[in-house]
Amino acid sequence: LKEFRPDIMYLTTTDYVQHKYAPGVPQANAFYEMFDKYLTELDALGAAIVVTADHGMKPKHKADGSPDVVYVQDLLDEWLGKDAARVILPITDPYVVHHGALGSFATAYLPDGADQAGIMARLAKIDGIMLVVDSPTACERFELPADRIG
User: Fold this and answer.
1) What is the pLDDT of residues 83-117, one digit of tens each?
2) How distant is the alpha carbon of residue 128 from its chain centre?
């Protein structure tokens, strides 16, 4: 910005630190101190700054360090019979070292004749599951292509 002032500039970072370290620990604080320093420098140069995140945050581990996981496939196996339903976890993030491959989205393919509404209601009551929707609702709410999801 000292030599060239673009109309708009997009800067991005990985969220490695936010996934790897809890808020308030020295490593997280050092990262934010560095980040604040850079933002302060940009502000001093007259930049208009917008900071946003690409997703929300929910702890992926319990206080004891064990994964906070709902095994939806196991539940559907119990309710419908082994392998009657198929659960797909489409986490595609190559940075599993800090995400731990613990996504928060699942697609379930139910067998013909399954009580979809009943299964959705049962899943919605489970602690740790925020939202259960059918395919048309998911497509509308999250702007997903209908031919690409269950």
Assistant:
1) 999 998 876 555 555 555 566 788 899 999 999 99
2) 13
Residue 6 tokens read as: 């673009």
Cα 148 to chain centroid distance, Å, stands at 19
Token pair 């991005």 in the structure block, residue = 12
Residue 62 lies in a domain: no
- SS3 call for 113: coil
Query: pTM of the prediction?
Result: 0.62
**Integer CA distances (angstroms), 35 to 55, 68, 75, 89, in order:** 19, 29, 43, 33
Is there a single domain that holds both residue 85 and residue 48?
A: no
Q: Biggest alpha carbon distance in the chain? A: 66
Clarify whether residues 88 and 121 are in a common domain: yes
> What whole-number distance in Å separates Cα of residue 121 and Cα of residue 133?
10
CB atoms within 10 A of CB 17: 17
Question: Which residue range forms the structural domain that includes residue 6?
Answer: 1-57
